[in-house]
Write a structure and sequence with these properties.
The complex is a heterodimer of chains A (about 325) and B (about 260).
Chain A lengths: L1 H25 L3 H24 L7 H19 L3 H23 L4 H21 L18 E3 L2 E4 L8 H25 L1 H11 L1 H6 L4 H27 L9 H14 L6 H15 L7 H15 L6 H7 L1
Helix pairs in contact in A: 2-6, 2-9, 2-10, 2-11, 3-4, 3-5, 3-9, 4-9, 10-11
Chain B lengths: L2 E12 L2 E12 L3 E5 L6 H8 L7 E6 L2 E2 L5 H7 L1 E3 L12 H7 L9 H6 L2 H20 L15 H14 L4 E5 L7 H16 L3 E5 L3 H7 L2 E6 L2 E6 L1 H5 L2 H6 L11
Parallel strand pairs in B: 3-8, 3-9, 6-7, 7-8
Antiparallel strand pairs in B: 1-2, 1-4, 4-5, 9-10
Helix pairs in contact in B: 3-5, 3-6, 5-6
Classes of the chains: A mainly alpha (about 325), B alpha/beta (about 260).
The structure holds adenosine-5'-triphosphate (ATP) and magnesium ion.
The site of magnesium ion (MG) has 3 residues of chain B, from helix 1.
């Protein structure tokens, strides 16, 4: 118990004190954007991780990130909504859509489910190109920054437009959201719900023989996953102030999945670590130019061969 | 003895093959009823129909007067009709104890949200499940290995764990598909005693089994299937002397049916 609290404290200090201090000390304010991206992408990856947890390979999170992004952008731009309200709405919109999509496709297993979700991302991109309200390939740009928000008179966030550097505000917003999402996910996985999800992952037939409504549970997990995808997408679009059909593509969907693999499918915080390492790794290799993808892919393959249970299994091994 | 389960004109076709053909019989409360028959006779299919893992082509199964066939497996399980699997089917990457604890889901009083929030009800459930899991494990002689990872268990223990998982659901009727398969004589005798104890707990037990001496020893009544059809039904001694049964098993050594 105390170990967990120390871990949580270290995490909070790293995210809310050390990182901003380091950035200020080095003057690399561009890193705010990097860490904001990592935080948001790790939220979307956490959703993918949950679908892995019930035994489904999900390569379609990009679709929901894109959908959530568009929902937020459209509501802000065309309906004058406050950015803040679009966040839960984008998440719920994606969750509902994923229930409609999930009911038929979640019956598929293994590579079949994986292929359908992969196609889903591409379908969403084509949809964004085709329907009028998304404005086709030109996308939606110049999305205004979030306004102020207060709860019961308590100011939660200032008007981002009045800030000297809104990126700092987006950094804090993203890491707060990341912390909350992972805390809830941790609770979910370590509650009985998590154990039932695990029973589903290990043997669906047996799970249904002990009375688990496997179809309903699969849909629930997928809906939570898609909620997180939509939420992350919406905040991401708020930070970049623009969205295009190519804002989230198949490559992103694959990366969300790789983040989970790399961090470790057995650990709630796997997708967070995976996203950090993958995102930073990819950017560090930027100077390698045309060899970037080659080195990156080789490193991924080697890592998966050496650490099939993810980076976090390193710590677990030492413990056990 | 009151009738608790009724199989009425149950038929299952797989394409051209009729795996179960118009089978009817009743099961009494707290009875041990065995279903026997040569390989491919349709025994497992019959069990899957009763537990709603398969939908019948025609006919139905009622439990306490309610139809339980043609539904989802978790619905039949909720009503109290639970199957174990012919193969050793367990949650491989959980500890033995966690396997049994998670199988208590049907007994949960708290909602999923309650479990997420850790409500008082949920915490009471958890404590109850843990206590009941320990009781089931010791009942089946698995208490010493509760901490082992299920996939590391030897075969005999895996079968017992399969039954423990079934028991955790608190079934009224437990369907055991070949519970003694792969066991030596001593293990089988222990397992037979265990099935008797299940009945003492108040359960009704249906089992499919090829081990004839064990079947004859344990069963109150026996139903015999051949090519999907019921060819006989009766007490062990009636079955042993039934001409059609002897013919169905012809070519199989006489001892096989305990003659
Ligand atoms: N899903 C299925 N699709 C097609 N045919 C099936 C299916 N399941 C079973 N069968 C066929 O139905 C017949 C009965 O099979 P079943 O498994 O019920 O036999 P059984 O009596 O349990 O045999 P065993 O003693 O070998 O376990 C067999 O011929 C089998 O090949
Ligand atoms: Mg069988």
């Amino acid at each position: 118990m105390t170990k967990k609290i120390i871990g949580l404290l270290l995490f909070l200090i790293a995210v809310f004190v050390v990182a901003p201090w380091l950035i200020a000390a080095t003057g690399r304010t561009d890193l705010y954007y990097v860490f904001t991206s990592v935080a948001l992408l790790s939220i979307a990856s956490a959703g993918v991780w949950l679908t892995f947890y019930i035994g489904r390979i999900n390569i379609g999170q990009g679709a929901y990130a894109l959908m959530g992004g568009y929902v937020s952008a459209i509501l802000v731009m065309y309906y004058g909504w406050s950015f803040w309200w679009t966040l839960p709405v984008a998440g719920i919109f994606c969750a509902v859509a994923s229930i409609l999509i999930g009911v038929p496709i979640l019956r598929l297993r293994g590579v079949y489910f994986a292929m359908v979700t992969l196609i889903l991302t591409e379908v969403m991109r084509l949809l964004a190109l085709a329907v009028p309200i998304t404005n086709g390939a030109k996308g939606i740009t110049s999305i205004p920054l979030p306004g102020p928000i207060s709860l019961f008179g308590l100011a939660l966030a200032p008007d981002f437009a009045t800030l000297e550097n809104p990126r700092i505000a987006f950094y804090y917003l993203s890491v707060v959201l990341m912390t909350v999402c992972f805390a809830l996910m941790y609770r979910l996985v370590h509650s009985r719900i998590g154990h039932i999800c695990l029973s589903l992952q290990q043997n669906e037939e047996l799970a249904s023989s002990i009375g688990v409504n496997i179809a309903a549970l699969r849909v629930m997990a997928y809906a939570i996953s898609s909620f997180l995808g939509g939420l992350a997408g919406a905040v991401f679009i708020g930070a970049t102030q623009s969205i295009y059909p190519s804002s989230f593509t198949v490559t992103d969907s694959v990366n969300f999945m790789l983040n989970c693999f790399l961090g470790g499918l057995g650990y709630v915080f796997g997708p967070m670590l995976g996203t950090l390492v993958l995102y930073l790794g990819w950017n560090l290799l930027f100077s390698m130019e045309k060899y970037q993808l080659l080195i990156y892919s080789t490193a991924m393959i080697v890592l998966m061969l050496v650490l099939p249970n993810g980076l976090l299994s390193l710590g677990a091994k030492r413990k056990g | 003895m009151a009738q608790i389960l009724e199989v009425k004109g149950l038929t299952k076709r797989f394409g051209g093959l009729i795996a179960v053909n118009d089978v009817s019989f009743g099961v009494n409360e707290r009875e041990i009823l065995s279903v026997i028959g040569p390989n491919g006779a349709g025994k497992s299919t019959l069990f899957k129909l009763i537990s709603s893992f398969l939908k019948p082509t025609s006919g139905e199964v009622t439990f306490k007067g309610e139809r339980i066939s043609n539904q989802a497996p978790h619905i039949a399980a909720r009503k109290g009709v639970v199957r174990t699997f012919q193969e050793t089917t367990i949650f491989r990457n959980m500890s033995v104890r966690d396997n049994v604890i998670v199988a208590h889901q049907l007994r949960a009083k708290a909602s999923l949200l309650g479990f997420f929030l850790g409500s008082a009800e949920a915490r009471r459930d958890e404590a109850r499940f843990a206590g009941s899991a320990d009781e089931i494990l010791s009942f089946l002689g698995l208490d010493a290995i509760g901490g082992e990872l299920a996939r590391n268990l030897p075969h005999g223990h895996l079968r017992a764990l399969g039954i423990a998982i079934g028991l955790a659901t608190n079934p009224t009727v437990l369907l055991l598909d070949e519970p003694f398969a792969g066991m030596n004589h001593d293990e089988t005798m222990k397992a037979v005693a265990m099935v008797r104890k299940l009945r003492e707990r108040g359960l009704t037990v249906l089992l499919v089994e090829h081990d004839m001496p064990a079947v004859m020893k344990i069963s109150d009544r026996i139903v015999v299937l051949n090519f999907g059809e019921k060819i006989a039904e009766g007490t062990p001694s009636e079955i042993q002397n039934n001409q059609r049964v002897i013919e169905a098993y012809l070519g199989v050594e006489d001892e096989a049916i305990g003659l």
